[in-house]
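Weekly sync, protein design subgroup
Attendees: M.S., D.O., the rotation student, P.L. (late)

Item 1: inverse folding check
M.S. brought a backbone from last month's batch and wanted to see whether the design step gives back something sensible before we order anything. D.O. pointed out we never logged the input encoding, so this time it goes straight into the notes. Structure tokens as presented (253 positions):
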């Protein structure tokens, strides 16, 4: 909830004026947090779209929150597509939020009771909900691996956050659900650490002690902007020792 707060505020700033409410639930469909205009409070309370309410499919049948969590995908449930007649006055646009272990941890929902709300407008809101859910997912992943380097991979699927967490030894120690799918890693649970180079297809030529030492020397030289003395200091060795290693590794001045 701490990670999601700023994202929820931003999303509500975009859709709140149109009579929509923004909700965040846990993985069981129980509402944890909610935002709506003061003038809409009574309506949302009467609907049960309020913190503590259970909107799982088991409790409410087909609905935006419960169906999103059950099917683990973005959904829009428009008015009479709801299972219970008491819910057919609303339109609900939802997207799942996945945790660092690849499992679902939340649903993000925007609900509206506007009678003039069209399916085209719903599609527009649905896109914003999906984008916000991915942002929450990415923020949560970064918070889970605060001491790791976060690598963002490209994907044509806008509904996936493809992030990898790489530790100081260049081992991949974490991956979002999207990254697990793209790189064919364990779908859920703890990730088996593996070299980042293995995932990025850098090949066998990058393996071995000489290659690792060369990479360390090149990084030190780059950080020192080519100053050998400064690079040696960063590496914790003498200047003459670094020159010898550079000659052995075929690194020119």
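Designed sequence read out in the meeting:
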């Amino acid at each position: 909830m701490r990670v999601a707060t700023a994202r929820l505020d931003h999303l509500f700033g975009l859709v709140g004026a149109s009579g929509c409410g923004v909700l965040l639930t846990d993985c069981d469909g129980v509402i944890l947090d909610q935002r709506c205009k003061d003038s809409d409070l009574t309506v949302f309370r009467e609907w049960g779209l309020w913190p503590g309410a259970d909107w799982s499919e088991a409790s409410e049948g087909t609905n935006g929150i419960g169906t999103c969590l059950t099917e683990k995908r973005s959904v829009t449930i428009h008015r009479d597509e709801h299972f219970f007649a008491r819910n057919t006055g609303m339109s609900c646009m939802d997207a799942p939020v996945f945790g660092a272990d690849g499992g679902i941890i939340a649903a993000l929902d925007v609900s509206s009771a506007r009678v003039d709300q069209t399916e085209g407008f719903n599609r527009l809101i649905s896109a914003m909900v999906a984008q916000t859910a991915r942002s929450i997912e990415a923020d949560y992943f970064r918070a889970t691996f605060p001491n790791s380097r976060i690598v963002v991979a490209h994907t044509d699927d806008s509904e996936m956050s493809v992030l990898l967490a790489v530790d100081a030894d260049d081992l991949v120690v974490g991956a979002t659900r999207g990254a697990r799918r793209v790189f064919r890693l364990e779908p859920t649970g703890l990730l088996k650490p593996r070299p980042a180079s293995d995932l990025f297809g850098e090949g066998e030529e990058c393996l071995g002690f000489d290659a690792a030492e060369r990479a360390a020397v090149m990084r030190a030289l780059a950080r020192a902007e080519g100053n050998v003395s400064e690079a040696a200091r960063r590496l914790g060795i003498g200047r003459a020792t670094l020159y010898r290693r550079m000659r052995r590794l075929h690194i020119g001045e």
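Discussion: The first strand starts at residue 20 and ends at 26. The two ends are 52 Å apart (CA to CA).
Action: P.L. to compare against the previous round before Friday.
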